[in-house]
Amino acid sequence: MSQQIQMDVSHARLMGGRRCEDAMWRQIVTVLDAAGRGCDLFDIEELRRDYSAEEFANLLMCEFVDDSASIFPLTMLQTCQVDSWVDWADDFKPLAIRPYGDRAVWIGYDPAETGDSAGIVVVAPPLVPGGKFRVLERHQFKGMDFAAQAAFIQQITLRYWVTYIGIDATGMGTGVAQLVRQFFPGVTIFNYSPEVKTRLVLKAFDVIKNERLEYDAGWTDLTQSLLAIQKTITPSGRQVTYTAGRSRTTGHADLAWALMHALQNEPLEGGTAARSTMEIC
What we know:
The protein is of the alpha/beta class. It is built from 11 helices and 11 strands. The N and C termini lie far apart (about 50 Å). InterPro entries: Terminase_6C. It holds the Pfam family Terminase_6C. Keywords: Viral release from host cell.
């Protein structure tokens, strides 16, 4: 019979390290602990400027994430996280000239807003109906002009067989979309409105809830970006919409929106539609 063990795992109890009641050694060292012990590799005030209060507490102070307001709670996202170098080793070679061979991929791009970053993801669609999406690459740009970002997207089309590109052309995304159209005429354009955002979020929620998305567990930036998506009300108070707080790490959740642009290429019912079978006797 299993036994329940009561353990104090607070920072005050574990900051010096201790052997706990389950015979496991545990220690919590926060960024403030490190600074207090003489580490001078970072500036605390700069870190506070770089991260939102929630990110600072989670990433640097070893505190649990408060995902109560997030559309995509952490428990849901944890089911998506894999060791990509092991789990995808048979058909994905990140360092190869053609990382995914001749299989199709989709690209999602979200432009920068004032003072933050742009994001791009490369997604492998399911090989069978209802199968899993895999996020093969993700990138963030800060300070790159339209031409440089479009050129980066074009380089991806030379390494992968790209069959779909989805871009938010609202505001600053217009310039990138125009340049991408020159080498990929079939680019899909999103002009944001509460209705468009709702459609994007509902599709992503359906995929993630049904455990149809995989990405590398080490990509904490993608996880933080998805956690940042929250439901809000438009200024008029008449419609529900979705927004994200800004920080230097997540931008305006650009990686999350870029991912949603890519997932949108599959119809909302794509993963759950009823499938008929035929029996041959």
